[in-house]
Amino acid sequence: MESIRLNNGVEMPVEGFGVFQIAPQSCERVVREALDAGYRMIDTAQAYYNEAGVGRAVKASGIPREDLFLVTKVWISNAGDERAAASIDASLRKLSTDYIDLLLIHQPFGDYYGTWRAMQRALASGKVRAVGLSNFYDARFVDLCEMFDVKPAVVQLETHVFSQQKRMRRLMEAYGTRLMAWSPLAQGRKEIFTNPTLVEIAARHGKTAAQTALRFLTQEGIVVIPKSSSRARMEENLAIGDFRLSGEEMDAVRALDEGKPSLADFEDPELARFLISYDEKFNPERRAATA
Fold it and tell me: What pTM value is reported for the model?
């Protein structure tokens, strides 16, 4: 599998498997299937409430830990120096691992300065191999970069052929930060699987529109984490390393960019309110404790 080198020298696969919205009770089974299909990077988060399922799947797989790349994220309710540090230890226990390969701040809300300090300490102590951000745009991204010596290795953003994050990629380049795409297939929206440009290019290579969309991103140097509960789709999404798009084809897909995210607006005050109260409303452990 292809990989990229992060700004601290860590090698990271260009394709992984995402477990957003995979229920805790089914996560272990789905991740085991993904590992069997050939995935070696798994992306989870504290707020997905399925880290333990990922940990069980990894342990049961028998795959050497050094051959895997585990990603998780610190949630808003765990923001701040002390809370973030405790949550990192909790994530390590749930994932049944001694270290996390990539740890991200999940949202640009709360005391993310304190969270970053805790993450820097985790990096220095060997609990984490690389640190980064998720959903940080423009000024907040630059603010954190300029205020700390350790620069984000990765920023995870909504990225797909209709939202190619060209402006953010230019900002990130100055800090050696790499882009990781969540929802690289736009959650199936905007008729991505039947888009005429993608379908036409795909036909030339004997591939699908989805494979073409993913290949475009990886050729641009963007890490992708598609999600699927279907074994056949898992394998299809992973089978993108045996073809390359021509310069003309890359330009045709670049022309699909609409210049803005289409699934979430992190400047929306209502989205901020929802995310800040998310853990209190949806954390199954909290709900069970108050039932």
Answer: 0.96
